[in-house]
Records
---
Amino acid sequence: MANRIPRVPVREQDPKVRATNFEEVCFGYNQEEALLEASRCLNCRNPRCVTACPVGLQIPRFIAQVAAGDIAAAAAVIAEDSSLPAVCGRVCPQETQCEGSCILGVKGEPVAIGKLERFVADYSRDLEPAKKEIVTNGRKVAVIGSGPAGLACASDLAKWGYDVTIFEALHKAGGVLEYGIPEFRLPKERVLRHEINAVRALGVKIETNVIVGRTITIDELMDREGFEAVFIGTGAGLPKFMNIPGENLCGVFSANEFLTRNNLMKAWREDYLTPIHAGAKVCVVGGGNVAMDAARTALRLGAEVHIVYRRTEAELPARREEVHHAIQEGIIFDMLTNPVEVLGDERGWVKALKCIRMELGEPDESGRRSPIPIPGSEFEIPTETVIMALGTSPNPLISKTTKGLDITRRGCLVADEQGATTRPGVFAGGDAVTGAATVILAMGAGRTAAKAIDAYLKAK
Amino acid sequence: MYQILSKEMLTPTICRMDVKAPRVAVSAQPGQFLIVRPDEQGERIPLTISDFDPERGSVTIVTQQIGASTADINACEVGECFSDVVGPLGLPSEFVEMSPGKLAGMRYIFIAGGVGTAPVYPQAKWLHSRGVPVDVIIGAKTKDLLIYKEEMAAVCDNLFICTDDGSEGFHGMVTALLEKLVVQDGRKYTQAVAIGPMIMMKFTTLTAKKLGLPIIVSLNTLMVDGTGMCGACRVSVGGKTRFACVEGPEFDGYLVDFDEAMRRQGQYKAEEAAANEKHVCKIGRGK
């Protein structure tokens, strides 16, 4: 029986070697490995993996094509639902979505759906893309933000004939995929650029260096530039701090600053001018993917790195693979530890992180057991740098400068399930609506909003 | 691409350029800034907007060469392009949103230090064109480093010059001149605005406080994106952490923790010194 074959392991760079470079950690499957892994799929009649995928990728259908050796056909199946397969294959939390629902996972290991998706995307990158004739309708839609939500929304609208322009605040398209996720997890030129260019090939225009809310407002886009509908996919870009004493000392950075310097500005490369400071020892506060990315980046810049997290390994919200990779690479995990103060020297630089030990109490509303400080257990971790990776919230620039756009108490845009905001013609989705979540959820929201925009404009 | 339309060296290290950036030119207001990335390898450098022409679609920037990246900007020639110009960033000056009634009661004194003179110009111009009384102090180490004298004279009621070495105008710092104007000459102001090096803004604030004069300062903090994403620009204002890029750059001088701001400004000094040693400016060569 097919499921007797164990899950095909994926080749990776040696942890000792990769801890010193920014090359991609995972090599991915070759065709032989992919075919073998694809043969494990049971092709369920009611595929739970598809239901568990936020964009509803036709997983058994594309895997069947891989198993049959027709990779181009597999790519075509994926392209129906996703414009970023090489990205998703690398950064999706498969263990809680498609692979987490795979029937093979009940008794053994689930099909490596993410790795197969990545293989198909990587393999077909050099193939001539199948040209589909798009009949344009000339109606203009503006998409704000070129991250996962914006790219997914723009792709669908362009396929249906709309004249789509994406406005991006930074100088490069990609949003968090560009500034947030490091090269060793998502290669920028080889993988990301290619998928963004594929979106451009659908006819989508991308205008960088436009900060909607400052450079131009939504009202101006609609009244002056003739956009009939707007999709806001501006993500959650504002860093959170702990509001503890000493947080403005030199050497305390938000993970956003640290990662933006490294990824968008390529500070890790000798030939780029933007500086970055890691030092000999770094404490990263937090336990999500961003914390893992910041920690593993600091490690590659030569630092000894500690992850300081107030719960235990079981509660780490990061992708399991990232935690596994971080441990392999030598990141030190200080669990059940919560910072209470950053201590500085006479020059105003960090010298230590004062923490308190925690224990786990009752589960909170998120279902995770909430940490409680143990009185009198304060201690100091000597460190040169502290990186705060505590999550992010949506940027208020657009909601503050657009009339009729309601936000929640937490600063998220109010939108219904289809993505319609409180302002007619303006739609939103992704982290800007939900608060910080995942690439694939943002893509799903972008696609849902695209459908709603299409319906809105057809009825108009 | 953002083409350089004109270029003029105001001093051996301070350069003025008009740059094509139509979207920025249309939206810019006094008090705001922009970010230039000269080329693919360059940093994103926050610069003040010293003028804007919506019809021509151009903005005027004034850049002092202090490191590798600012050297790259100043090495660009007319006809060449910057990779990126983004803005306007930050909030406009307070007076832009002021009611006509309130504005009519205002009397401004601007204290401009060094390259900080450039961003004072659009503010003085805006107020002067609306009939609001505006005096301006321009200070520099020595006479050769004074910029914008003629331009400023045209957009203010009284222009006062001072140099540290006494080579032109009042002999002494801007703080001494400000005190003289108010105490000795009996000039009355309702609002001071200081723009210049952090240390100068700190001491000007102390002087203004002594004189009982409210003062606004424009903070040139470190920044990466300029949109509130990175927090490199955070400053303590009235004991609260604020982001200079989106909540500033202008703040009530009385409330700013200048010592912390100065320390934070120097955070990458070691890295920058190392980069300067290695850096060979590649812009404008062999083109």
---
Amino acid sequence: MPADLAGTANAVPAVVRVGVERAADRSSSGIGFEDVTVAYNGLVVLDSLTLAVNPGEIVALIGPSGSGKTTALRAVAGFVRPVRGRITIGPRDVTNVAPHARNIGMVVQNYALFPHMRAEENVAFGLRARGAAADVIRQRVPECLRLVGMASYAKRYPRELSGGQQQRVAIARALAIRPQVLLLDEPLSALDAQIRRSMLDELAKLHRELPSLTVLYVTHDQTEALTLADHIGIMRDGKLVAFGDAQSLYRYPPNRFSAEFLGRANLLPVQALVATGGGMARVRFRDGAFVARNHHALPDGGECLLCVRPHDLCLAPPDAASNALTATVKSVQWQGDMQSVELDVDGHLLRVSCAPMHAPPSPGAPLTVHFSATQATLVPETMVRG
Amino acid sequence: MADIALRLPVADERPAVNSWIAPPLLILAALFFFPLALIVRQALTGDGDVLSIAKFASVFASREFHHALGNTLTIALAATAGCLVLGFVLSVLIAFTPFPGSRVIARMIDTFIALPTFLVALAFTFIYGSAGMLNESLKALLHLDLPPVDFLYSQWGVMLSEVTVYTPFVMRPLLAAFSLIEPAQIEVAASLGARPLRIVSRIILPAALPALVAGGSLCLLLTVNEFGIVLFIGAKDVITLPLLIYDKAIQQFDYTTACVIAVVNVALSIALYSLYRFVVAYFGSRRAGLV
Amino acid sequence: MLVWSRTGRALTWAFALLLFAVLYGLPIGVIALASISGQWNGVLPSHMTLEHYVNALQGDSLEQLHVSLWTGFVASAVALVSGTWAALALRPLARLPKRLLDVVFFIPSAVPSVSVGLGLLVAFSRPPLLLNGTTLIVLIAHFVLISAFTYGNVSAGLARLPIEFEQVAESLGARPFYRLRRVTLPLVTPYLIAAFSLSFALSMGELGATVMVYPPGWVTMPVGIFALSDRGAIFDAAALTMVLAISTSIVLVGLSHIPTRASPR
């Protein structure tokens, strides 16, 4: 027996140990962006992005099309090369590493399953490309197909699968190589609403089963981001304009764009801020005054925006201390389980979502709405226009 | 996002050239560009070693060259015009008045492109030749002794054959361009009271223009280069440039004259090819029907 | 739908069918008819015979069928390899050099075939490369003339291939050559077959360059057909033309039945 194998208890072929097992053994790794800038032909599409995705975490990048979110993902995959900055996966700087050597799993919007291969061959592709041993492939492929609930479709060609099934196989294919990080690029946007909902639950379940998997998730859909992500980054015009955990980003948006993009928000310009202690502040709007959370600790005397979500506005006063606002009804829409009322306050649009009413107000009539001080938050008016 | 995007001095990252391109390029250079260069050299030096344009001068002064050049251009222009008219009519019929079997016919025309061109010339001798079907029918009907139709062994015969052979090359881009026209557009126009001819002139023709120009310039190139049809028609006074080259080199073993004419012919073809590429680039390959 | 009235539509259809019949049906029909005519002095042949096919499938004519098939297969196969190679090598290049080289690979299709033949005669009729009078010069002529078409077909196929397939393959760890072999080439197989088919058909019908360079021992069918028709054996010429068209079609139909699992969605 050769000396170097003498100490090995069970002889696993070397190539498998290196190419496949090592990635699994290694504790999970995060993704780091440090001042990453990407430009195509001189046009900056990603502007000095600095962001850390912690090991085992799901981070969603959301933003409108052209905001640079997909470019950020493709930079991690290695398909675009930054003109400046560093990208790390775990402790390794991969900025100049070829895509095939990065050990990432990637799932794209249109699945891109290889049409000339059966589902199982698609899943085996990455293992074969890395020269994994036959018995590893035999064991890993059914395991991954089972994980996404596609075990009985192993022999099917992609064209014989529905969109949702194709997407499951695509996820299995990405997971089969036991990647350090999983990149999901708009993975659900080609599916119709109902299947998207159930796939979303599946993805959440998948992450519970593979808690060490680090995921970077790019989407334009806020529901997907809010459902799945531990942290959310909001992108706009190539820049990261907000980053935080889903809860606080939703409740205390740091700027106008985030407030409007992540869940619809009513924003009213208010003045003469006075901090009242306990993280609260009083502001002036027209003749009246409101009390709201001053989460961002805005300075006294300044102007800012009052942010109230449509479902936090109610028609009946829950208590005497609540903020009240009288406006003119513009339109009333019944949406089944919800009634949506649009109000006009000094030329500002105010949306109210409430339970269906027996006698909805008619357009043109005055209406007083209330909101709780703790449900309203003050947002700095930034340079970025909405 | 363009309004906020700042411009960085970043060049196109893709390589300008790589070594993988060398093998096919070398093969092409050895088998195509090198022989082409030798044609030019032979045209300029003859069988000696002295560069001179004397041979060009004498060829340019000769009547047979004028004749051939004139024939080539006349036939090419007329045949191209014929292809454009016929191709447009046939494409409109196939695309906008779908009749039973029109799809099959469209596919048949596609395969016609792959058939040798001389097939049509050979067929025409059976149909329009002096002892062909048409003349025999007319002689029998009108009790004539001499064949009444006699155009095949002239420029007309060549033109008609070329129109038949090259019309599919106009139809292909046209049909592709027509498939981009919304049927609703035509239905709306018709519902507003536009008559078919008006729809053709106001909606279909403008949409087809890029494809017509692209198909037309391709036709011009192919008809200038056509050899088989002219050879098979074999009319004594219909000599085109390619036929004259063949005649000089193979029948008379006068390679230098053949090379001089070939230089002119190749230059003409490359100019027409440039025109074609320019047209396609100008309109964009999608609008030119070359999706 | 451009014509709405019932009679108008019927008239248009009749016109269209007549036009197609006269333009494209008649020539092929006449060749087919001539190939089985014993004698044709009136409007229609006076009697039918299969004698011309017997002639076409023996002796020189049969030899020409062999020559044409061989030339077509060899020239198309070489052109397929070189065209695919060129299209793949050009793909990652920057815009400007790519367009320039693209024109270079397309130019042979723009040059008249007789001039290509003349160039080969001039270039290879003297030492060190004395190819004049060999079979090889015919193969070279065919290769040069069809190479642009194979290149064009393959690069069109590559241009239509969505980039995601190869990127996903790369992210899964596939090195360039593995990716080419397992993903790129299988996905463009339909275009490779189309490229080969077109090249083969063009080679089978090639006349201009062949007539310039062919040696006595390597006569292709189009040259043979011209020789027959030139000496007045037009019915034999028609029969050989039919053999040419039918044998080309058989090969093309055969090629179109090669199973490719890469069906584009």
---
Amino acid sequence: MQGWLDFARGPLFRFCFLLMVLGLLRAFAFSAAGLLRAHRRAGDRDVPWRRLVADTVSWLAPVGRLWRSRPLYSTISVVWHAGLILVPLFLAAHVTLFRNSAGFAWFALPQPAADVLTWLTVLGSFALFAGRVGDRNARSLSRRQDYLWPLLIAVPFISGALCSQAPLSPAAYQALMLVHLLSGNLVLVLIPFTKVAHCVLLPLSQLVSGVGWKFPAGAGDRVAATLGKPPTPVVDLKPSAGHEPTHEPVREEMTA
Amino acid sequence: MDRVRRLKTVLWFLTGVAAAVGAVRFITGLGVTTNLSDSHPWGFWIGFDVMGGVALAAGGFVITAIVYVFKREQFHPIVKPAVLTAFLGYIAVILGLLFDLGLPWNIWHMIIYWNPHSPLFEVGWCVMLYTAVLLLEFSPVPLEPFSAWARIRRFLIRYRIVLVVLGIGLSTLHQSSLGSLFLIMPYKVHALWYTPILPILFFISAVMLGLYIVTWESKFTAWAYRRQEDTDLVAMLQGSARWVALVYIAVRFGDLAVRGELAAAFAPGPHTWLFWAEIVLMAALPFALSLSRRVLRSTSGQWAIASTGVFGVVFNRVNVGGLAHVGGGAETYVPNWTEFVISAGVVSFVALVFLFIVEHFRVWAQRPADPAADPEALPEFEPVSQVSLGGPAHAARVRNSMAFIIAAAVGFALMPFERVERQGLRELAVKPALGGDTLFVDGNRDGYGVFFRHQFHVEKQGGRQSCANCHHMNLPGDRNSECSACHREMYRTSDAFRHQWHASPEGGNVACADCHDLGKPKSAGSVFADRRDCDGCHPKLAHDHKWIEVERYGAVASYADAMHGLCVECHRRELEAAAAASPEDQATASESVTEVNGGQDRRELTLCTTCHRGETLRQLRPDVMPGRETPAGVVRTQANLTPWNRRASRQEKDDG
């Protein structure tokens, strides 16, 4: 058993970790190259940088934007994401492991905070899964990985929490630790090849709509006009007054 | 293009493994990532990457000489690929050398700090200059599409003969000087390879390999790109190569005969096998095969001749570069897998550059069709998710980058990081001391230990009450456990507590919560106060009168440090006490110390020989420590003892 643990903690972890890092770099490079190509070919190359950056930053904390339509969902999602990022990176045990192998590390969360955040993340996983299954609209939009990810995320969190907090027998500890290591490694290796790649693609995701919206020139405005929506790629909750008149000519042009 | 496509994916994979392994090599150094050592600083990289690489690049000067000097115009179609291969070969040599150099950032030193007596200096300069010459020789090809460079291109073509002659001169110099490098090591290179005419043998085999590699490359690219094979040209080149092979065999065996080492070629041993494998592969087999006209003109025959010849000469370079170096019984060198992987990666990377150049420039009369430019190419799909990858060019990028990153992750996973953790210190389990009243303390069993008069120390320190002075801790259920019970590593600290063993179900079966406060992060800091040392669970492990306090159970001193710490420290204190006492006491103390030690003054603690007196157990009890037999019957130093290397022993006899 110790041999399996050493394998999962050593070579297997190194494989999964480096594949994650390189895979994310690759995903980012391909996305950026594709965007660049699209931008080069676009009829209208004027990219609204200021708005794109502002949108990207504001979507990092979606509570403000989604608060009116889905307050519960947005709260759970933000807490869940916070736990997902903070606990694996700043858990004292992980920091120690990293320091012992690489020779350097960073600060750690206080143990009680990490424990609470861990269980909040587990609860969040189940809540998000239930929300996705329970809502008809969400169901119709979901792929297989959308259901599997919250559940998969919960596995290393539950097993890790039990290992660190429960008074287990050595045999149970080793078994749970192996589950923790294997599921954690699986998460790492799947990140760049599934939707979780959004963790590095996020800065590009607003750019995609920003560029695509204007490809070909004026297309976005025409679509917006046809739908009777404000002329921005992203839903703006506070529509600026006076956008209607600017679109009258476009509509005319289309009908003509 | 299917073959090239697959080939490229494989090459990207190999480059990926090498990229990860190479990165670790540059971060952590040579000692932990390779099997190279101070006694074997030159190994597979020098043999294959540098000496094999330079020899593999010999096609450049051989073919340019044939075409531009001897005016054999029928070989003109293979000049450009031969020069390209040579240029990329030298790039591979330089890349490989950067991996091998301990301080690669000093590679420019030879330009400024001259050592004109060194063959390595000559090789360095020649390689540098010849790489530049090859670049100039080849650059008309990539410059062809750019009209802005047309004048420079015309200039290079007009004065090509100067470059060709320079290339031949530089090649002759350094192809042979690579052999001269080893003239400095008569005691290290085996007698079957070591000869004063090593440079001449290197030059002849370089010419031979130059002919073989050009034919091999022609065959290989014809296969990969499904091009028309140039059987006549290959047959002509291989036909000439056989005469070079014959000359090589004659010179090699003639030299062995003149030096009186011919019998060594039939002496049993691994080097005999290396020698014959090399002779058969590099010269005998290609020569025998190319005698038959039918074999010489058949595709499979040409493949066999080119492949054995190329493999054989490179094998010869690897032998001279490392494998034929004598270990003398002290240490043998077998390359680590990391060394093979990095060499394969360098070759793969260069091969990718080669494929890129032949696909984008007019190296051959007809450029191979670019699959990305095919307007009728169908989009490709990812095999698992069936997602469209777009056209062939983008699909190739997706596939090759995937191969690269998976390979890099595999290489990183397989790296021997436990060697890095040891920081080069060898793991060496300690063996307990031997004997009874007098102990022979020789933890690493190299035969050079210290005789420790145990019974004498017991009596001097006050009989059985004094055990605890030195035996400060015991194993559970044991009394006076030996030093090696806890100090288990010769040169590294060892874990006397054995945390992993205590926590495993098969071992101590102790749960985390038994010792650690689970409300805190698990570390030494969260252990309950009454569990901080062994006495918390095992009563009476430590003696009451102990002199030594254990500070960290998880990292106790190495055996060597523990032994030196105990003996030296105790004797030092004793002498300080004597010095502080009256002059009479001092004299008595000194006298008694000198007397009991057979006239040797043990106060000279800074001298190793005070305790390590060169007595070995092997000397006293050959049955206990069977060692290497030597004519004198006494083991002296480990160096210079290569009894089967007859040159060395002959030298010894001369000296004697």
---
Amino acid sequence: MVQSNQLTINQRDVIYETFDDEVVLINLDNGNYYSIADTAAQVWSFIEAGYSVDDIVNEMAQLYQGGEEDIEGAVNAFISELIQDELIRPNQGMEAEGHERKEVKPVHKGDAREKPFVPPKLNRYTDMQDLLLLDPIHEVDEAGWPNPKTDPASLSDG
Amino acid sequence: MGDPRAQINVIDSPLKAQETDYFDQVHSAFEKAAQSTGGKVDRSIQFGEFIIRLSFAGPALESRILPAFDHLSTGSVLTPSLTINLWDSASTSINLPRPPWIVGDYLPRGDIWSGESDQMVTLYEPANNTLCLLDRSRNEAVFWIKDASKVPYYESGAPLRMVLHWWMSGHGYQLVHAGAVGTPHGGVLLTGKGGSGKSTTALACIGSELGYAGDDYCMISNSPAPCAHSIFNSGKLNAEDAYRFPKLRSALSNADRLATEKALFFIYQVFPETVVREFPIRAIFIPRVAGSSETHLKPVSPVEGFLAMAPSTIFQLRGVRKTIHKSIGEITRKVPSYVLELGTDIEEIPGVISDWLSRN
């Protein structure tokens, strides 16, 4: 279960590009990138528009054919995964203040209500992590510059 | 140590002022370095509508930087849109001024966080002992390396790419991790992560009817239509693969260092007529090594094209990364994407590309 009802995209580290019914998300901080489609892209569009978790569940239940409990469980699990991967964050402050939300169009062409609900899926790609060399700078030399910690050859081109 | 960015108030970061001051100090050191070697050596290259002056403090870095830009050389020194000042300490005996930042100011790979301000971008790369600073308000940059004789081969193949990425991204161009081949009437981007076959594909086209605009990096622009622009005329191959390209032997620059380096070719020096400076982009090809002898094309979605080009570009580049995806997203929506399943017969590759271009 997602603890906070209001969500916000991690704008500092995450960039994303939307293609019809698919979205590609890139986490600049950890090197992971993701593709989401169909119901996952629909949930993302609600998050982007400022919907609360409760509202997202309700909207998804109206948009797709499926049991409400199944939809609630799957949407909550997906949102938890987005939070765990630091793509979005729970936002307690906005909850108290109230939050304005934008209009959302269904990602499906035609009537999505004819479509059975499929649990949203986060496709995660980790093959770029080695380009980040996530070893923090620990020390500098006598001139004030970081010491090389990496074999330069390993930084070479792609 | 936590995330260094959390320790710094980005809006009021004292580093921004420090970076401006430090840029002045480094620039003064560059002037001293030039005096110590008898003066500056100025060269100009032309990229699109822009003249870029490369101002060297002495001759030590010229041969390490210029060959990749030979095809863009203007021959004479012209009024620049951007000036990049280059120097090294080993040949000039002028050291870098002590930096104003501390350990906590470095991001994991050595970037120095400045909030990517509108004015300054700074990057120190510990592994290469290089420092790059760009002051956008002055259209002036400094590139320093500790020892010019130790410029890595891959930097000679794609020199100054971070500075060019930072500056060009504000002038309608985006550096992308992609090769490009085609004719002045149209061509294709070759994209994918390292080892996918970009270089094999691009270099296989030399000697064919297709021109060469790069094997690993090129610039793209989207307005008014998608266009590829050559920025480096170099090409690289794993040393063990170089034997498959005997026609490139005369363009090989590092035959004596192949035990530790990839084979680095400068195409313009030997095949000047084959280097094409720009062309309209008709498609994005994603090379993949396949098992069969023949080469095939398979259409894929725009998302596949974006996934092949955007993450590898974004994570290869440093600084000014938050807008890269927009340029790549735009181009992947405008032109079709294909997987280029590479066969073992590399002679066949340019024909497959030419055939597609002639039909589309």
